Amino acid sequence: MAIHELTLAGLTRILRESAGQDEDVDLDGDILDLTFTELGYDSLALLEAAGRVERETGVKLSDDAVGEAETPRLFLALVNELVTVGT
Fold first, then answer.
1. d(C-alpha 68, C-alpha 77), whole Å
2. Are 45 and 75 in contact (CB under 8 A)?
3. Coil, strand or helix: which one is 22?
4. How many CB atoms lie within 10 A of CB 59?
5. Could you tell me how far CA 43 lies from the centroid of its own chain?
């Protein structure tokens, strides 16, 4: 069953489940505009998380689009735009 919107809480859950969490980073804090690199996630970790997002939302994310979404805010906007288009 696909979800209708990806929230920040959902994204942080997926990041933790797919790639773990850097002990120096508080994913429960104000992270919307921090880059994934600042949060301790490299491109491989982000692609792994994107795969989980695809399975949960039912949308297809291109590797290029994922690479351009450098912050959680941009990533959420990308995913939720596609979820909205797909419904």
1. 12
2. no
3. coil
4. 20
5. 12
- Render pLDDT for 37-80 as a digit per residue (tens, 0 to 9): 999 899 888 999 999 999 988 899 999 999 999 999 999 999 99
Whether 59 and 86 have beta carbons less than 8 Å apart is answered as yes
Q: Is 40 left (phi over 0), alpha (psi -120 to 50) or beta?
A: left
* Residue 78 near residue 53, CB atoms below 8 Å: no
CA distance 71 to 66: 10
| Whole-number Å distance between alpha carbons of 68 and 26 | 23
Structure tokens that stand for 35 in this block? 């880059």
Collapse the DSSP code of 29 into the 3-class scheme (helix H, G, I; strand E, B; otherwise coil) and give the result.
Answer: coil
Tokens of 73: 């805010």
Residue given tokens 């505009």 in the structure block = 33
Give the DSSP H or E segment for 64.
helix 63-68
Confidence (pTM): 0.87
